[in-house]
Design goal:
Elements lengths: L15 E8 L6 E8 L6 E10 L2 H7 L16 E8 L11 E4 L2 E3 L5 H4 L10 E2 L4 E2 L4 E2 L7 E5 L4 E2 L6 H4 L5 H11 L8 E5 L3 H12 L3 E6 L5 H7 L4 E4 L3 H6 L4 E6 L8 H4 L2 E9 L11 H5 L4 E4 L5 H14 L5 E4 L4 H10 L5 E5 H4 L5
Parallel strand pairs: 12-13, 12-15, 13-14, 15-16, 16-17, 18-19
Antiparallel strand pairs: 1-2, 3-4, 3-10, 3-19, 4-5, 5-11, 6-7, 8-9
Helix pairs in contact: 4-5, 4-10
Length: about 375
């Protein structure tokens, strides 16, 4: 997420009262926070927020780990809700529609990325929180709140068959792995996909890989996850990354790898798993720079690439595909009063695999 532009701009007083959970300092502790949203404009959609997933990036931004947090901050970019108001020029949605909002609520609309369906690579993206929205000059507040107003072009329609709570993480975790699978050709039946890490992103990668008809191998540092990877999520095989014998036996076997790990780790043994011209796509965010000897890329024509979320068109395509193939996230549904405890557990990796806040039923001003 980018640092907010125009941070010193005086925001206008806004009329729409809202309640959210905000952190006010680097402790990251969340507490009730009354604030305001803008009125619903001609091209806007107003949502009553029903559910919001907790992304690991929420935790980083709450604690200012990436050094651009603007407090107070209301996180949340895995939002699912119900349309309660539409502007006079809105032609994509109607009252009562079940819709979602992901990582972005606006963009410049004119750069190469924006004009080709890649708003996620806009030089000045307006993130769902911790950005400044040019519509009204205010700092954006996210989905740990009871309502939100968004331009219709950044709203995603949720398929009727998907359970809303289990669909919400797809708006970040889902598109983060679906987009690179699509654009790097790792979505064809019969290919062999490796998934590094079995967390919020990894478990969804397994599900999409199987929905595409691929052979899927999970690579993890935790041997205890083998049973759930294969029996619960449907992976075909499992490798323990610290087991040199297992890893060597699997060398040159995979067409592509989605690497979801955010902890520092060596990528050289992972690159060795790839077939000639195989690709490893980084979607995790290790804090330390990767060490990649050129030799590990050149001997085999390996490709190491990165990917960040996805554009609105691809996000809609992803959620429609998920609806068709019944792909959802495995979640733990929590109340708003449990969010600080959930953050503690998230920091320890104690979640299978995504926390989702029941906003509509539990977010109250006095929690």
């Amino acid at each position: 997420m980018a640092a907010p532009a125009n941070a010193n701009k005086v925001a206008p007083e806004l009329p729409r009262k809202a309640i959210g959970l905000a952190a006010h300092d680097t402790s990251g502790l969340l507490s009730p926070f009354p604030f305001s949203r803008r009125n619903n404009g001609d091209n806007d959609v107003t949502l009553k927020i029903l559910y919001c997933g907790i992304c690991h990036s929420d935790l980083h931004i709450l604690k200012n780990d990436w050094k651009f947090t603007k407090y107070p901050i209301v996180p949340g970019h895995e939002i699912v809700g119900e349309v309660t108001e539409v502007g006079s020029k809105v032609n994509k949605f109607k009252l009562g529609d079940k819709v979602g909002i992901g990582c972005f609520v606006n963009s410049c609309r004119s750069c190469h990325g924006c004009t080709t369906g890649f708003e996620n690579y806009c030089p000045v993206p307006i993130y769902t929180y911790n950005s400044v929205d040019p519509e009204d000059g205010t700092v954006t507040y996210g989905g740990y709140s009871d309502m939100i107003v968004v331009n219709q072009d950044f709203v995603i329609r949720i398929p009727e068959n998907l359970p809303l709570d289990k669909a919400s993480p797809l708006l970040c975790a889902g598109i983060t792995v679906y987009a690179p699978m699509k654009y790097h050709g790792l979505n064809a039946s019969g290919l062999h996909l490796g998934v590094v890490g079995l967390g919020g992103l990894g478990h969804v990668s397994v599900k999409f890989g199987k929905a595409f008809g691929m052979k899927v191998t999970v690579i993890s540092s935790s041997p205890s996850k083998e049973k759930e990877a294969i029996e619960r999520l449907g992976a075909d095989s499992f490798l323990v990354s610290s087991n040199a014998e297992q890893m060597k036996a699997a060398n040159f076997s995979m067409d592509g790898i989605i690497n979801t790990v955010s902890a520092s780790h060596s990528v050289v043994p992972l690159l060795a798993l790839l077939k000639p011209n195989g690709k490893m796509i980084m979607v995790g965010l290790p804090e330390k720079p990767l060490e990649v000897p050129a030799f590990s890329l050149i001997t085999g024509g390996k490709i190491l690439a990165g990917s960040c979320a996805g554009g609105i068109m691809d996000t809609q395509e992803m959620i429609d595909f998920a609806g068709k193939h019944n792909v959802t996230a495995d979640i733990e549904l929590i109340g708003a009063d449990y969010v600080n405890k959930a953050m503690e557990r998230l920091a320890k990796g104690d979640i299978r695999y995504r926390f989702v806040i029941d906003i509509a039923n539990t977010l109250k001003p006095n929690i």
